[in-house]
């Protein structure tokens, strides 16, 4: 970790010299209609009101039973929120809206092929479908509260329907991003202990109908090798009654959901009142070492946090048409396509495919057709759309009131394009900084309260108290623009509860680094380590500088370099592998791979084999930009691969002093190879 930290701190130091940006006030029109215009919200969420302040978020929900303890911090860092309370997430996203909103669109699904009709589900229709699927999961698949089920699904309505059906029963869903490979899915099935896999036959992406069911067969094999048997595979079909996959159906294991559902037509399933602390879902994410970790999110605290932040930061109101372009297979989709917006009775739009299919105007056409007024996406997509057609938005008659950027730092220049061209100079922008682990936003401007500053996420959201530490645990003086490790001083209800099945990893990864006293039961001694470098400007706005660990943020998605390296090592010819982040004008970062080979190996096929192995292990999203076959890795005298040196070479940066390496001459050899 320390080795890569150097890399990021040097970036951080460069960043300090970035100029301060001009700020943009939100428009009077936006403020006039906003959910939260009162700056006193920060007083209500002040540190001395902690943790009771979070009742304000919890009160946005409907509870079966209230809590007796808002925060039980007696077993740090395992925080328990709303202890004693009971709640059901599915009830809060569906049933409770029927009185007022049953004929209102809950979800609008836009298929990628433009000649296929949009599908709208009203809250009443969503209610019917969630109930029928819940009945099937309970009575056909035998699932009950506390069981885990893996959902390997693309961006189709069946995904939120299945999630809400699980939540209705208290079944813990683990959604695996549809683009992940069979192997990645299988590892997550095994780790979560899922006996049921929900998948789909195929889906559209980039103009092609992709095979998907075949991945489940591979995934089940991988899971079986790790000791986890999958008894049932429930297959949704892209077209009802028509199987579009080539993969065989395994008798007694694989079932078409649309067939089985015929037995459950009209069934109703009472939502199960769950303890606030019961896990709602697992979301796997990459870390510094080892396999991906299953971040376990709670029901009550998580729901309160996403409802509160959706209302005040996203400014979602029931008559908004809200479109978040993320994939539900990532945390953004869980919190800000499904649970947050639906808990507020919004209309949430889901799009199946890529935003430039069949052309760069697609996103703006969807916005125009559906009257989207809140838009949410990542810098990667913004950069891509800008490159594809910089004037595109002006040709479409839509009007956003609010826009979000999330997942990676946004360059001020790209921000300004987003503001002036996509938002037509009228929409308020929030740059929301957070993580899979945090459940919801940590930093962002409050859109009707704070001015926007391009390239900065903004101050912390209500109730969040960041602190920046240096490597030795000293607090970096506030507001001086000095970079360090950004941590959060206090627990908050959206924070994940643990790493599934690995309490030690939860403590060591997130809390050990800056814990002041391991025996302390005072939460103040347990700051949460985010793994990001950041600096705070004089105005209290934070600028996020990127990861300080071995995580590469590719197009806003987290990939562990160790996972990619281990895929490289699956190629028999590869002796050693090192993966470093390469700056990319569209995706932010992409992996660059260096491999050295076993003696007497023929290197000709190695590059292709490495790429294939990475796609098999993780998925296309991890595909490297280059695979360099090098004579040897630059190493310290103790034999550690100097990834920092390779990253500097990849990015054309100064490699610094390498004379102390065990093999300094290899550095210039590699540099010549890479830089020509
Ligand atoms: O490095 C930060 C970056 O994305 C990481 C979290 O990735 P993930 O868990 O996949 O969640 C993505 C969706 C929240 C963070 O550690 N990141 C996230 N949002 C921003 C960001 N970097 C800069 N600015 C942001 N707004």
Q: What would you note in describing this structure?
A:
The structure is a single chain. The chain has 21 helices and 30 strands. The protein is α/β, with parallel strands linked by helices. A hairpin with a 2-residue loop joins strand 26 (551-554) and strand 27. The longest helix has 18 residues, at 123-140. It is globular and about 75 Å long. Mean pLDDT is 94; it is low at 1-17. Adenosine-5'-monophosphate-propyl ester is lined by residues 285, 331-332, 406-409, 431-436, 457, 530-532, 544, 546-547, 553, 557-558.
Number of helices: 21
Strand content: 15-25%
Helix content: 25-40%
Ions, cofactors, ligands: which are bound? adenosine-5'-monophosphate-propyl ester
Average pLDDT, all residues:
94
Oligomer: single chain
Class inferred from helices and paired strands: alpha/beta
The order of strands across the largest sheet is 12-11-8-6-7-14-15-23
Number of strands: 30
How far apart are the first and last residues' alpha carbons, in Å?
A: 30 Å
Give a quick account of the main beta sheet: strands, pairing sense, barrel closure: 8 strands, mixed
Low-confidence stretches: 1-17
**Tell me, what's the shape?**
globular
Q: What secondary-structure arrangement, pairings included, does this model have?
A:
Elements: H1 2-16, H2 28-33, H3 41-44, H4 55-58, E1 69-72, E2 80-83, E3 86-87, H5 89-93, H6 98-101, E4 105-110, E5 119-122, H7 123-140, E6 148-151, H8 158-169, E7 172-175, H9 182-192, E8 196-200, E9 202-205, E10 208-211, H10 213-225, E11 232-236, E12 254-256, H11 257-260, E13 274-275, E14 279-285, E15 293-298, H12 300-312, E16 321-324, H13 331-343, E17 347-351, H14 362-370, E18 374-377, H15 379-388, E19 402-406, H16 412-422, E20 428-432, E21 466-469, E22 484-488, E23 498-499, H17 503-510, E24 528-536, E25 542-547, E26 551-554, E27 557-560, H18 561-569, E28 574-584, E29 588-597, H19 606-617, E30 627-629, H20 643-650, H21 665-675
Parallel strand pairs: 4-17, 6-7, 6-8, 7-14, 8-11, 11-12, 16-17, 16-18, 18-19, 19-20, 29-30
Antiparallel strand pairs: 1-2, 3-13, 4-5, 9-10, 14-15, 15-23, 21-22, 22-24, 24-25, 26-27, 28-29
Bound molecules: adenosine-5'-monophosphate-propyl ester (PRX).
């Amino acid at each position: 970790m320390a080795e890569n930290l150097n890399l990021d701190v040097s970036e951080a130091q460069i960043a300090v010299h970035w100029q301060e940006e001009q700020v943009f006030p939100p428009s009077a029109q936006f403020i006039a209609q906003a959910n939260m215009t009162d700056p006193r919200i920060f007083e209500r969420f002040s540190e001395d009101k902690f943790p009771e302040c979070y009742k304000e978020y919890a009160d946005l929900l409907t509870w079966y039973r209230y809590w007796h303890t808002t925060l039980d911090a007696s077993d740090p860092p395992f925080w328990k929120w709303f202890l004693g309370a009971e709640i059901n997430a599915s009830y809060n996203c569906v049933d409770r809206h029927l009185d007022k909103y049953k004929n209102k669109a809950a979800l609008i699904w836009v298929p990628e092929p433009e000649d296929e009709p949009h599908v709208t589900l009203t809250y009443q229709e969503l209610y019917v479908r969630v109930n029928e699927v819940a009945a099937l999961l309970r009575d056909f698949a035998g699932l009950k509260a506390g069981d885990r089920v893996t959902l390997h699904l693309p961006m189709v309505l069946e995904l939120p329907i299945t999630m809400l059906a699980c939540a209705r029963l208290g079944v813990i869903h683990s959604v695996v991003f549809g683009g992940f490979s069979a192997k990645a899915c299988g590892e997550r099935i095994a780790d979560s202990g899922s006996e049921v896999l929900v998948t789909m036959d195929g889906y559209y992406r980039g103009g092609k109908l992709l095979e998907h069911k075949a991945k489940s067969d591979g995934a089940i094999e991988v899971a079986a090798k790790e000791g986890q048997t999958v008894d049932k595979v429930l297959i949704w079909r892209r077209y009802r009654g028509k199987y579009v996959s080539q993969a065989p159906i395994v008798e007694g294991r694989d079932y078409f959901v649309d067939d089985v559902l015929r037995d459950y037509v009209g069934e109703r399933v009472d939502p199960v009142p769950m303890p606030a602390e019961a896990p709602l879902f697992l979301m796997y994410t990459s870390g510094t070492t080892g396999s991906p970790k299953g971040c376990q999110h709670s029901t009550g605290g998580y729901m309160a946090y996403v409802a509160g932040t959706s209302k005040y930061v996203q400014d979602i109101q029931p008559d908004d048409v809200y479109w978040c372009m993320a994939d539900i297979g990532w945390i953004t989709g869980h919190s800000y396509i499904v649970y947050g917006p639906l808990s507020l009775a919004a209309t949430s739009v889901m799009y199946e495919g890529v935003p430039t299919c069949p052309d760069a105007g697609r996103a703006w056409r969807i916005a125009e057709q559906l009257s989207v007024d809140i838009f949410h996406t990542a810098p990667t997509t913004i950069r891509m759309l800008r490159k594809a057609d910089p004037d595109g938005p002006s040709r479409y008659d839509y009007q956003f009131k609010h826009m979000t950027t999330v997942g990676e730092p946004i360059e001020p220049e790209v921000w300004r394009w987003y503001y002036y061209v996509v938002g037509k100079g009228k929409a308020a922008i929030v740059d929301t900084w957070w993580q899979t682990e945090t459940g919801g936003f940590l930093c962002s401007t409050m859109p009707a309260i704070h001015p926007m500053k391009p390239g900065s996420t903004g101050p912390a959201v209500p109730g969040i108290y960041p602190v920046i530490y240096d490597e030795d645990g000293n607090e970096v003086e506030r507001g001086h623009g000095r970079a360090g490790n950004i941590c959060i001083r206090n627990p908050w209800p959206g924070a994940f509860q643990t790493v599934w099945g690995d309490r030690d990893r939860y403590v060591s990864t997130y809390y050990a680094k800056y814990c002041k006293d391991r025996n302390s039961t005072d939460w103040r001694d347990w700051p949460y380590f985010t793994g990001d470098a950041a600096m705070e400007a004089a105005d209290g706005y934070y600028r996020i500088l990127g990861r300080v660990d071995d995580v590469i943020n590719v197009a806003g998605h987290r990939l562990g370099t160790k996972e990619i390296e281990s895929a490289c090592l699956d190629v028999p010819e590869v002796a050693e592998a090192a993966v470093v982040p390469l700056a990319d004008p569209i995706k932010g970062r992409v992996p660059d791979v260096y491999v050295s080979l076993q003696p007497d190996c023929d290197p000709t096929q190695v590059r292709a084999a490495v790429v294939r192995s990475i796609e098999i292990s993780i998925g296309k999203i991890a595909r490297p930009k280059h695979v360099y076959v090098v004579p040897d890795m630059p190493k310290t005298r103790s034999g550690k691969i100097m990834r920092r040196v390779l990253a500097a070479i990849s990015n054309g940066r100064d490699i610094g002093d390498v004379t102390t390496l065990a093999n300094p001459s290899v550095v210039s050899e590699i540099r010549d190879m890479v830089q020509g």
